[in-house]
Design a protein that fits this description.
Length: about 170
């Protein structure tokens, strides 16, 4: 998991953590694993806790990969919780225009990840920002003037079922 994603406009030193990456590696016995295009994980059996025979937490440094102690992770988790709360407070202050425009940045980041894997680099990051900003410029006023999308109204409901059954 990346902990220092600088693609977002709100990413600054106030939310940076002391490590850039964290990985939990597990060795499993008698478990089939599939990973989807966007990183979704499916396992068989679904509950595999009893099948874990070894695990470890690792991070990267300039010298390479190194193991992390649980005590070290506890301090980082506390820092992450503080940073998350600062971000939530910052996001709450955004007006509707900024929140809608941020959606383009959020979805653009999904493409950026694939560009990074393909070695396209910072030039690709800039093209993503420009293209998604063009989309914001074309659609923002209509989105502000119109009704909220149905999914947003559905999420705000507290009565009834949250999900529709799949038949």
């Amino acid at each position: 998991m990346g902990l220092r994603d600088e693609f977002y406009s709100w990413a600054d030193e106030s939310v940076q953590l002391p490590i850039a990456h964290l990985a939990c590696l597990m060795r499993l016995k008698d478990v089939a694993v599939r990973i989807g295009l966007f990183g979704s994980l499916w396992t068989e059996p679904r509950e595999y806790n009893r099948n874990v025979i070894a695990y470890g937490l690792f991070t990267t440094t300039e010298a390479g990969v190194r193991p992390m102690a649980l005590e070290e992770l506890e301090a980082i988790a506390a820092q992450a919780a503080d940073a998350q709360m600062r971000l939530y407070r910052r996001f709450l202050a955004w007006d509707a225009r900024r929140r809608i425009a941020y959606g383009a940045e959020l979805y653009g980041n999904l493409l950026r990840v694939f560009g990074d894997l393909a070695g396209l680099g910072p030039g690709f990051h800039q093209r993503i920002r420009e293209r998604f900003q063009e989309s914001v410029d074309r659609h923002l006023e209509a989105l502000l003037a119109g009704e909220p999308p149905l999914i947003l109204r559905h999420i705000a409901e507290t009565e009834g079922e949250i999900y529709s059954p799949i038949v």
